[in-house]
Amino acid sequence: MTRPGEVAVVAFAQTRHVRAADELSEVEMLMPVLREVLDRTGLSAGEIGFTCSGSCDYLAGRAFSFTMALDGVGAWPPISESHVEMDGAWALYEAWVKILTGEAETALVYSYGKSSPGDLPEVLTRQLDPYYLAPLWPDSVSLAALQARALLDAGETDERELARIAARSRASAADNPRAQLRSSAPVDELLERGYLAEPLRVHDVPPVTDGAAAVVLAAGDTARRLTARPAWIRGMDHRIEAHSLGVRDLTDSPSTRLAAERAGLFDAAAPPPDTAELHAPFTSQEVVLRKALRLDGETAVNPSGGPLAANPVMAAGLIRIGEAAARISRGESRRAVAHATSGPCLQQNLVAVLESDEAAPRETARDDAAQGEPA
What we know:
Elements: E1 7-14, H1 26-41, E2 50-54, H2 57-60, H3 66-73, E3 81-84, H4 88-100, E4 106-114, H5 120-123, H6 140-153, H7 159-172, H8 187-191, E5 195-197, E6 200-201, E7 210-219, H9 220-226, E8 231-240, H10 254-263, E9 275-277, H11 283-292, E10 300-301, H12 316-329, E11 335-342, E12 348-355, H13 367-370
Parallel strand pairs: 2-3, 2-4, 9-10, 9-11
Antiparallel strand pairs: 1-7, 1-8, 4-7, 5-6, 8-12, 11-12
Helix pairs in contact: 1-3, 4-12, 7-11
């Protein structure tokens, strides 16, 4: 029987991520993904209880651009639909809450982003504090370099470890046919290359990517009917740091740690995660996230390659949840943590804990998850 708070990822699909999908509009890029994810469940668009999307008008360069993507979904007959001007991971959070409250049994979540048409690092300056920071036009790579420098100065990492993260991530992507970058030069060769924004080199920075992704969520018994191995969302939470970078310790991420705690990642009765899909666009940010999430060498970090192998802005966070769920569905993982971020230097962070039916049972469960209440 369906128990309160039972929601699972039952299907995941994504594009083959590329540097520039010049020949495709956002809708044309999205439609095959929507078709694929629905085909995997056997559901039609009309059978979905709730639809939620994530995208950014600044990437598209026009207001209310997300309404055009609805052409790929089909908004007639009328559907229950919503949109967040955020990464699709936050759209998934909204859909998860919708199902927990009993207002839907199934949900379609999708997100997309074409970063190639504009200068992405400069476009991202528009998310900064509009009074003190944005007028200086610090681009996203320069801000990430400040965070990396703080980590090096604090002794938290070094440039060789950052190169190892890049090499490991892109080597892991060799088994991911959807990744954009699927190989890496040796670490020593990477370290011989010049700086992009010291101490970051090109390998420390995510590729510019065009891509889309979609996920189907379902409650309890419906999830069991739609797939043999549901990826159960045991908890999910998101938190935000102070807006001003000057009042933050860039070597730490308290918001990630708090979101993970509220999502149940650190529950004593639960086993540690065997998989972590981290939305760390820069190598230095993986160092921060591993510490905040208390990950050790037993956890496989970004086995899909992560955002260092493909980073479609507004979809990369949703992809982390989808990749973690896919490993559970394939029987390659029993308990996974997925992370999504938005804003400069890990400003906003979302953490989801997913488990298979085979995960070790817990003696206690978080009250908020059991009662279906968002943290």
